[in-house]
Amino acid sequence: MKTVNETPQTLVEKDQRNIWHHMSKDDAKREPMIATEAKGSWITDHNGNSYLDGMSGLWCVNVGYGREEMAQAAYDQLKEMSYSSMSQSHLPAIKLAEKLNDMLNDEYMIFYSNSGSDANEVAFKIARQYHQQNGESSRYKFISRYRAYHGGSLGALAATGQPLRKFKYEPLTSGFLHVAPPDNYRKPESMSVKEYNLQRAREIEEKIIWEQKETIAGLIMEPVITGGGVLIPDPVYVEKVQEICNRHGVLLIMDEVICGFGRTGKTFGHMHYDVKPDIVTMAKGLTSAYLPLSVTAVRKDIYDVFNNTEENSHFRHVNTFGGNPASCAVALKNIEIMEQENLTNRAAVLGDKLRGELKELESHPYVGDVRNQGFVMGIEMVEDKETKTPATDQRVGKIIGECKANGLIIGRNGDTVAGYNNILALCPPLSSSDDDLDFIVSVIKKVFKNNE
Ligand SMILES: Cc1ncc(COP(=O)(O)O)c(C=O)c1O
Q1: pLDDT at 207 > cutoff 80
Q2: Quick one: which of 17, 59, 317, 380 has the fewest CB in 10 Å?
Q3: 435: DSSP letter
């Protein structure tokens, strides 16, 4: 939709009059960036300014903007058969489920929904019902990590470990417990990375035991905590967590909403480790956000516990839009593009290059740590490198603002844990060109230089 007959000023006024923006503090005064066109990694706004989108929207536009074949896939499917609920079936849903199982290298049952939050809610409901019907009806609690985000609905928010996202909305769904994640930058100096990661994993086991293991239904984790500050575990952590879950009958739910679909340099983030999740949730990069779609992939042996004729033992959950045929068709096209262009490998290559270029920032007075897993990077800003005191909001905001003024959109772990919203985030489209990467690097270096 082009801005024909609308001056930028009238658009802004109409926006301010009518739209309550997500996460926004001052809608009435703030001039929003009204995106009017986007192609590749670049967005144009209502004033004709261009920006490289170093966040892929909300960590989601993995194949980049403006792909005609994605629009065509949606158009063709909408024309042929626009809707069928997932109580029945349709061709794109069947093809996509088969493809996802190929990608997961296993046999999962694919449950479709609309968003990452939905996918996690479905995972929690399935896990609780599974234990009820599997002779362990006392298992209802979930463990997750502080600092991680799992969604905005009341259950997914309860799993989220970011108090600023919960404050004033509580009480949330009960039965959600939290443990600290490994934060290697802030580990005790006396410990090696491996010792520290193993200790963090053992804290999960302690939690399970102290809470009475027969009450724990599942553990949800992202392979890398993304929106909560790009916290990258050592592989020993994830593998130990799997072992602990297995030992105590706790289902391992892997939230691949951001890490999936190539972002970390593997098809799914958990594939960096020797683990096999019981449930995998996906959204965002599944369609590169061209249309809404999410998936809860559930291991067959869990599904089997639902697949009988006993009264009320089926999964009594429906959503109108989940598995929308056009969304599934777009997801299939998205995966085809990723494969044709080898974008998962590209994420690894671009991530390595980005780290190679930006690691030198660690000698900047206000940068404590630069870290990445594939093409998602965190730059942790501090006031003092010795004490690692997190940088102030003002200092972090100034870097983000100056990057934008120079044509680069970057993100941060905003509104997560009070005093710890000090980590800049970069998560550009995996289809970014070498020139795009050079642009990102040059803007970031320039802005940090101005802020020494
Ligand atoms: C790791 C993770 N899980 C779940 C969600 C929730 O997804 P949605 O916003 O589609 O509900 C998000 C959203 O940012 C996320 O980053």
Answers
A1: yes
A2: 17
A3: H
